[in-house]
């Protein structure tokens, strides 16, 4: 049997980072920056007030209380070039430019709030409540580097530095297809021998959580011809395809029957539990990577975590590697099959004492409810068949 590491290495050797593409900021969330972005101007662009109050010279309010004439008012957005002399005050709002000649802002709370004259009750040091130009970013500074994942804060600084379009590696577009004559769409009645189709919803959400854009194709029956037709129709919009079901050893294995003859998808047994039957390769003229995952829901989920998510990371231009693990202490003993790496569904608890992990009841590869109650996978190495309570283990947080 092929090892998990070998299978992942083969996958990562095949998939490529997606080509960079210029997108509008509105489309950039969740993409990965493919250029260094510099700010064309200093940020803030001008000295401005951090609060509502009075712009003064700090020296004028050293001996309080002191009364100063209020010469004018300046609000955020004010575009006049203003200046004031000694012994004066300007009423100023948050974000408004500090007039030339002033070197500090007195909070309105430390004054009587006057409009013609103001009484200042407390002195302020020079520079008080003034946000200096360039204090966040100097003109020409790089604000975000190539390889940064664009989340909310990163979008904020891109916009804040005046960018409307950015060069990014886009979210991979992933088609999710499920196969099985027994599958009924959730929300429709269940006939005898049928189950509600769950994998495509689960895998679609997993793709989105992994930074992909997903197209959930309707489930197809166990006819290889129908499967191929549906696959071909979906390929136009795919950077990758995920199928579930139809790859085991029985009869009616449409994915295997349809793809094996094409010679570019390899079906093999990987030494893992759950998830032994795996297939990976490329399809279509564009050689789109295809992951043919086993149909058992927990198997397809674990296969996604172990193989597909690392591949999507590479496609997004992120550093490649296996799923990230943390160390935790087992709160119960467990058994694991020999010569297979197992991924046991578990609850990981982190507190001040450290991390502990407890396998959930229901480790069958069809037991989706047990999976849904877990928040982690305990990774048990191939050569380990038993772990006592108190053992230190590697855990993939979900
Ligand atoms: P297969 O890999 O097609 O032999 O399917 C293995 C098991 O997973 C069978 O019990 C299927 O009924 C079940 N299964 C396959 N596909 C799905 C799906 N999309 N949703 C829920 N269960 C599935
Ligand atoms: Mg099937």
UniProtKB/TrEMBL annotation:
Known catalytic reactions: adenylyl-molybdopterin + molybdate = Mo-molybdopterin + AMP + H(+)
Ranges for domain MoaB/Mog: 175-314
EC number(s) on file: 2.10.1.1
Stored InterPro entries: MoaB/Mog-like_dom_sf, MoaB/Mog_dom, MoeA-like, MoeA_C_domain_IV, MoeA_C_domain_IV_sf, MoeA_linker/N, MoeA_linker/N_sf
Pathway involvement of the protein, from the record: Cofactor biosynthesis; molybdopterin biosynthesis
Cofactor(s) needed: Mg(2+)
A Pfam family this chain is assigned to: MoCF_biosynth
Protein keywords: Magnesium, Metal-binding, Molybdenum, Molybdenum cofactor biosynthesis, Transferase
SMART domains: MoCF_biosynth
Name of the top EC class for this enzyme: transferase
Annotated function: Catalyzes the insertion of molybdate into adenylated molybdopterin with the concomitant release of AMP.
Family under the similarity heading: Belongs to the MoeA family.
Name this polypeptide is given: Molybdopterin molybdenumtransferase
